[in-house]
Amino acid sequence: MEKAYATIIEQVGEDLSREGLVDTPARAAKAMAYLTRGYKQNLEEVVNNALFPSDNSEMVLVKNIELYSLCEHHLLPFIGKAHVAYIPDGKVIGLSKIARIVDMYARRLQIQENMTKEIAEAIMSVTGAKGVGVVIEAKHMCMMMRGVEKQNGSMTTSMMLGTFRSKPETRSEFLSLLS
Ligand SMILES: Nc1nc2c(ncn2[C@@H]2O[C@H](COP(=O)(O)OP(=O)(O)OP(=O)(O)O)[C@@H](O)[C@H]2O)c(=O)[nH]1
Ligand SMILES: [Zn+2]
């Protein structure tokens, strides 16, 4: 990756031997590895068995989980918030693990729709919940810094599974808690 960044820096017309740029290929490679570290994680290790028995079968909602991802079309950031809800079925998941699951999928090359689905499916499979709902709102730098250059357009995506899909009242409760 360092070599690739060295090539990019040269190709934009810069002088790779300039003092300020000498360490940049290594730094940029390290930063990119960090921004895509989700590829090196898996669900089991992220959740670390943090599942706890509970007979609470009401909705659990974690709102405003910030996320930083990279769009797979331009490799530019998209930045936003995830809201995740589920209805437990005998067990609940450690609160921080929901945010860790969001990060595991955000820290990859993504499109927002696929990331939303992957997060919902992961939470469903790990918790065995009766239902899962995920809503993500994000702003895409590829639409702001270049291309169409619209600064105020944000994108909202959602994925509803189980009772969030089959029961309109569950979906409405979730959406009304978000508004
Ligand atoms: N649906 C969706 N589209 C995305 C996402 N991130 C970026 N895009 C879009 O991907 C599209 C790629 O379109 P292309 O026409 O192949 O690429 P482009 O010429 O760079 O497009 P412009 O951005 O319109 O300049 C653009 O419309 C982007 O806005 C995402 O998460 N979801
Ligand atoms: Zn893009």
Automatic annotation (TrEMBL):
It is an enzyme of class 3 (hydrolase). PROSITE patterns: GTP_CYCLOHYDROL_1_1, GTP_CYCLOHYDROL_1_2. It holds the Pfam family GTP_cyclohydroI. The keyword GTP-binding applies. InterPro entries: GTP-CH-I_C/QueF, GTP-CH-I_N, GTP_CycHdrlase_I, GTP_CycHdrlase_I_CS, GTP_CycHdrlase_I_dom. It catalyses: GTP + H2O = 7,8-dihydroneopterin 3'-triphosphate + formate + H(+). Keywords: GTP-binding, Hydrolase, Metal-binding, Nucleotide-binding, One-carbon metabolism, Zinc. Pathway: Cofactor biosynthesis; 7,8-dihydroneopterin triphosphate biosynthesis; 7,8-dihydroneopterin triphosphate from GTP: step 1/1. Belongs to the GTP cyclohydrolase I family. HAMAP family: FolE. Homopolymer. NCBIfam families: folE, PRK09347.1-2, PRK09347.1-3. This is GTP cyclohydrolase 1. It comes from Neptunomonas antarctica.
